[in-house]
């Protein structure tokens, strides 16, 4: 490819939309790879002669590894061309899926899923903030939405497709198909991404130092509260729907489809909205999630009410990733990859924490208890967002907005790893 992207910290003069699509395909592949075992656990456990708990590690382990690996791999990348780094990480996911498909037993399967966690942590840390390097400022919101759109579409299409392949041809065929998908995306990234050199390497000490920034601390707090609350309730949606409305598996499948489609719409709506007013967008999302989850035991008892609530839930949660990533970019525009690494770590940790909290709550308080736990955490997230701007005249960030982040030459400042 003859053209090259602007150095880190500079805006490109043209939009690389094919590259944005390639990164979106990457996020689609990452999430599909991470979550596909959910629909394959029964057949995996039966074939490998392992318990449901051991098979479940194929789902929980990647998130834990990703949370730990995100900051480490971001620092290890140094000044390497981000195009090559993303290709290498996607190639790692290809190998991991192939190992899963060929796994003779549980140890190999679990090891392959640990490799998936490494790929997830590294890929997300770089890809999450890549829109600012691929499109001009006016298109950042749309490009960020497209990149994060891979997450929502994976939930609606990728994971069900993997489950279907597993049902028709066996779980090994499903992992082999994922390996083929990741290999194809690796080629697309290599062909479509422009060179993305880093002007300065990120030092490990820079990542925890970002915690000194109040905007960063608030963003991570909101991420932990909101994502933990969501997964505490959503992980046990089946028991909640059954207890509240008395519905069976058929309605649950329809609800998940409604939720997924609404999530795609929410993602693409939240990107431009967050670019205009990130604090207001996150506040609206958190408040909506809190209201929906807390209302499930009431209006949700009527099936029409449950459908409406799940549609609103999907619409709101679909915008969580893109809006919170925009928050982190606004908080530390001088260090987007370091901020993304912290965001990825907290997000993945919150997924595991939410599932754990939901399990403890449903065992002790019943299915309706998880709605109170999840809704309360979402309400606390909304309160944290509101308080973040209360003493700043509505601005959650002490620094200037991205629209005013420019130097004497009219360009945004370069990344400074010494801050």
TrEMBL record:
Renumbered residue ranges of the record's region Disordered: 393-419
InterPro entries listed in its UniProt record: MFS, MFS_dom, MFS_Efflux_Transporters, MFS_trans_sf
Sequence ranges assigned to domain Major facilitator superfamily (MFS) profile in this UniProt record: 19-393
Membrane topology classification: Multi-pass membrane protein
CDD domains linked: MFS_NepI_like
One Pfam family matching this protein: MFS_1
Main location: membrane
Keyword set, alphabetical order: Cell membrane, Membrane, Transmembrane, Transmembrane helix
Name of the protein this chain belongs to: MFS family arabinose efflux permease
Lineage summary: Bacteria, Bacillati, Actinomycetota, Actinomycetes, Streptosporangiales
